[in-house]
Specification:
By secondary structure, the protein is mainly beta. Helix content is about 10%, strand content about 55%. Strands 1-2-3-5-6-7-8-9-10-11-12-13 form a twelve-stranded antiparallel barrel. A hairpin with a 2-residue loop joins strand 2 and strand 3. The chain is globular and about 55 Å long. The relative contact order is 0.18.
């Protein structure tokens, strides 16, 4: 996706009530700095691919992430916003417990008809265990479960408990780090979606100046829609800036490489560790 196309996508995110493109950017910046004042976010955000790092026994991480997405397909246009709060606790030096609380809002327009969905989505509870380390390599397992707290009738909810298991691998060669995720999601649901899903993604980080990293990510998942729908495939680029040892800010742009992935998304976040 060219830089010019990304700019066009960003400027048509659909925030008409905010005064077009300029208003959308003002809103994004406001959300970003409000998040900073709240002192929370995600350590590897804006990456979708996780790393093997853990917090350490008795330590916490609080994360605040936002994602604004725009998608246009045929006569349908959809704009969505997701706000996620993630709390991580280091149970042991190599074991983390992770709770995710997402809020979603989406607005869809097709042939003059408009519909809106909003509310708390399904909570997630995960356990990350880094079980192996050697010569810059490390590996972890991340089992988890999705808890059906979302409203499956009026909002973004699946209606059923869904387990998942991810394998995570990281290789560190300063100033570089490379990550691989392979996952299986048992997408139990009562809304007619596929139940067996897979995920595969790779990412890298490059600290090209002190406290500032460039990141990139590409990945795919099996489409939960029934039929021959293509898998959502994404590509992402961004920056992570460390204000201190325990506080990171980040900004990313994600593009869809298949029609089942949103055309363009803007991601912001911050991570506070204590």
């Amino acid at each position: 996706m060219s830089l010019q196309r990304i700019r066009q996508k960003v400027c048509c995110l659909g925030f008409e009530s905010l005064g077009g493109c300029a208003g959308a950017w003002r809103f994004l910046l406001a959300q970003f700095f409000l998040g900073l004042l709240s002192a929370s976010a995600f350590a590897a955000h804006p990456l979708i691919t996780d790393d093997t790092g853990t917090q350490g026994g008795g330590k916490f991480q609080v994360e605040l992430n936002t994602e604004f997405s725009h998608d246009h397909e045929g006569e349908a246009t959809e704009d969505s916003f997701e706000f996620a709060t993630i709390i991580t606790y280091g149970v042991l030096e190599t074991v983390d417990l992770v709770l995710g609380v997402p809020y979603q809002h989406s607005r869809r327009e097709e042939r003059g008809f408009k519909s809106t969905q909003a509310g708390i989505s399904d909570l997630s509870l995960e356990l990350k265990w880094r079980f192996w380390e050697s010569s810059g390599w490390s590996a972890a397992l991340k089992p988890g479960v999705r808890i059906p707290t979302g409203d499956k009738e009026e909002g973004p909810g699946s209606g059923r408990v869904s387990p998942a298991l991810f394998f995570i691998s990281t290789k560190e060669i300063e100033p570089w780090a490379f990550h691989l995720n392979l996952g299986y999601i048992r997408n139990e649901n009562s809304i007619g979606e596929r139940t067996d899903l897979w995920h595969a993604s790779i990412a890298f980080e490059w600290e090209f100046v002190k406290d500032l990293k460039a990141v990139a990510n590409v990945g795919a998942e099996r489409n939960p829609e029934q039929g021959s729908a293509p898998p959502p495939v994404f590509i992402l680029g961004g920056l992570i800036y460390s204000l201190g040892e325990n506080l990171d800010l980040d900004l990313g742009v994600k593009g869809g490489l298949t029609r089942s992935e949103p055309d363009c998304s803007i991601l912001t976040g911050l991570a506070w560790r204590f």
